[in-house]
Amino acid sequence: MIVNGLSKSKRLNNSVALHYRLGNVDDIDAVFSLNQQSFSEAWSKKSLLDVMLAGFDLYICEDGDLLIAYLLSQDILDETHIMQIAVLPDYQRQGIGRQLTQWLFNNKSEQSLILLEVRASNKGAQAMYQGLGFQHIGTRKAYYKARNIGETPENAIVMQYMTSRKII
Ligand SMILES: CC(C)(COP(=O)(O)OP(=O)(O)OC[C@H]1O[C@@H](n2cnc3c(N)ncnc32)[C@H](O)[C@@H]1OP(=O)(O)O)[C@@H](O)C(=O)NCCC(=O)NCCS
How far is the CA of 82 from the centre of ligand 1 (A)? Predict the structure, then answer.
């Protein structure tokens, strides 16, 4: 699979068929590449491999052979944590992040909660989560390390989505 090579914005139209599927360890190279493009604190390839082997779930969206988005989640008891979600920049704002998260909701309907942390400055991601029904439930102070010398660490906004499952 390839994750680069797009030089101009790729606007989707009805003729473009995106393919959503569960990922596996064979997708690590493509996920690693998109991970590096998307996060200032990118994970190493080994970390990604370790979490896949530990049973994290990987949801993928492809345009042909091109990996254009992924969502990585971890189940902890009856909670599911969204660890990472990323959409290739040329494919953003076309509903793909929302689609991947809704797919997670469907797959995890037996869980009680879906949780995540997001940078306080990442208003776009927060808007997507709010639109999907997540609520801001707290703040973790200085959760993200400073990106550069002289900068301060950044707070994380903690967001929660209650599934319809009742906790007994
Ligand atoms: C956050 C991210 C995954 C969103 O994916 P996406 O496919 O672009 O999002 P969608 O197109 O599904 O957006 C759904 C809604 O969320 C909101 N939204 C998404 N991105 C937004 C932005 N940059 N600014 C404002 N609102 C935004 C909008 O309400 C949007 O609906 P609209 O386009 O009809 O207005 C993507 O921007 C990304 O990969 N960012 C880099 C990595 C990252 O920040 N991950 C999240 C870490 S918690």
Answer: 15
Close Cβ partners of 123 (under 8 Å, ≥ 6 residues apart): none
Distances (CA, A) of 61 to 25, 30, 89, 112, 153: 15, 11, 14, 25, 32
167 alpha carbon to ligand 1 midpoint, in Å?
Answer: 30
The string of pLDDT tens digits covering residues 89-114 is: 999 999 999 999 999 999 999 999 99
Q: Quick one: pLDDT at residue 41?
A: 87
Kindly state whether residue 11 falls inside one of the protein's structural domains.
no
Ligand 1 atom nearest to CA at 99? 12
- For the CA of 119, the closest atom of ligand 1 is 48
In CATH, what number is assigned to the domain containing residue 107? 3.40.630.30
Question: Which domain, by its residues, includes 83?
Answer: 18-162
Pocket test of ligand 1: the residue of 92, 114, 123, 159 to mutate, having most ligand atoms within 8 Å of its CB, is 92
Are 15 and 63 a contacting pair, CB within 8 Å?
A: no
What pLDDT sits at residue 168?
52
Evaluate if pTM is beyond 0.85: yes
Q: Does some domain include residue 12?
A: no
